[in-house]
User: What shape does this take?
Amino acid sequence: MTLQVTNTLTGEREPFEPQDPESVLLYYCGLTVSDFAHLGHARSWVHVDVMHRWLEHLGYDVRHVENFTDVNEKIVARVGEDDLGESESEVARHFITEVLEDMRSLNLLRAEVYPRVSEHVPEIVDLVETLVEKGYAYESNGSVYFDVTEFEDYGKLSNQKIEEMEAQGEEDERQEKRHPADFALWKAGEAHPDDADPGGETWNSPWGEGRPGWHIECSAMSMTHLDETIDIHLGGQDLVFPHHENEIAQSEAATGQQFAKYWMHVRLLETGGEKMSSSLQNYFTVRNAVEEFGTDAIRMFLLSTAYNNRQTYSEETLQEAVERWERLERGYDRAVEAADSVDARTKVEDEDLRTAVAETREEFTAAMNDDFNTREAITALLDLTSAVNVHLDERDEYDYQALCDAVETFEEFGEDVLGFALAGDAEGEVEILGDVVELVLNVREQERDAGNYERADELRDELEALGVEVQDTDDGPTFRLE
RNA sequence: GCCAAGGUGGCAGAGUCCGGCCGAACGCAGCGGCCUGCAGAGCCGCCUACCGCCGGUUCAAAUCCGGCCCUUGGCUCCA
Assistant: This one.
């Protein structure tokens, strides 16, 4: 069973075969750091994170590079706003810090490198020079443009014909271009006083002062940190055209090599009719979402739809994800507690549970290999949850070995691959807190034994208000910290 | 106008590439039951599917082919 992936380049599902059978070169088009990250960014991140994790699970050494675009007019536009910073680079640095924090809050595996455009201007200039030398680009008024008519395959990623394309770029630069679809590789800084907002940095180049174009950065950084040909290039669906189309053109024109073997695009998170207006924007930030629903519920929400299918955000779908996550977590907790309670030498065997564990492993693997079908993968884990629950509810004696296998499966797939925090952070503070709760529950048991249920219920309600969910069982009370 | 993706139960959402295990998964909401001092969790059952419409291919179609209707996303910086 091998991994199959959908390649935007061919539009088909193909067997995944990296150039080097041992490793995968992966580049992800990251954010333009002019604002906080929102749930849509989280969708891409979490899916790419799970792809990364699954590739590692399959044994590949994954070299993951994700850029930050820190040179952009949108960043310049915010210079001086509030306390964001007094220059383009200060504003960018501010948001990079915030965005990295958001990424950590989503429990994303770190990339190997997070390159920034401002640190790669020499490489960008070199690349542009190469393109000019080879006749794929021309200088005009201090700016340099890529000549799309010189690159035979232009349009192959987005399936478009040059003649049918709308002009790219601002109105005033169209005058300088030979073909409307030509795009800027280097933009003169002084030739456009209107664009040259104060605070926007410029660099020296063979064509005078200026700034890198909007697409050349990723080509330069991908080649610098990975190779001329990489295995997977990822990004949001919205980047297919023009961004990735242009990356292919300029990269392949410069090197004569294929730029990326597999192009994969995460479909955009939709909002169900309502536009992502600025008034709603705040609510959609990663920060607010994680704070309100928790990392695991957010991951559950985002992974409950395959990366290349449409997903609509709504209060209801998010709430459903919370329930799905809690069901999974409870199942895991029950399995762990049950396994801990059983004598390891027990001879009890439950064929149903053992079969369920085996099927879960098989189905999870098949789902992930089938173009990273995270929805089906989660389904497999929830099926295991049901099997564990049935086993614990219907059996008087537990199957120690099967429970251990179930726990291991939850951890291997749920934690390592899907990135959930099943075992939680059982650190000092949490342990002490648990002991305190235990103490209160003992008191409550005394009240219950004395038939003083009113007081017992009060204690339960008060604990719940503090985020401690109490559950009475045959074996005494149990609790969960929310 | 161009490019692309879709229309499956109350909601949400797999399955469609490689037709039969789909008499349609997993879950959420709701209802009934078991358990329970109560509640919750869990378990069992139901609501619950003529798989957008019409026609074709086939022993067999949600899945393949043709036509039609409708929806959504992108095409400007955008994950």
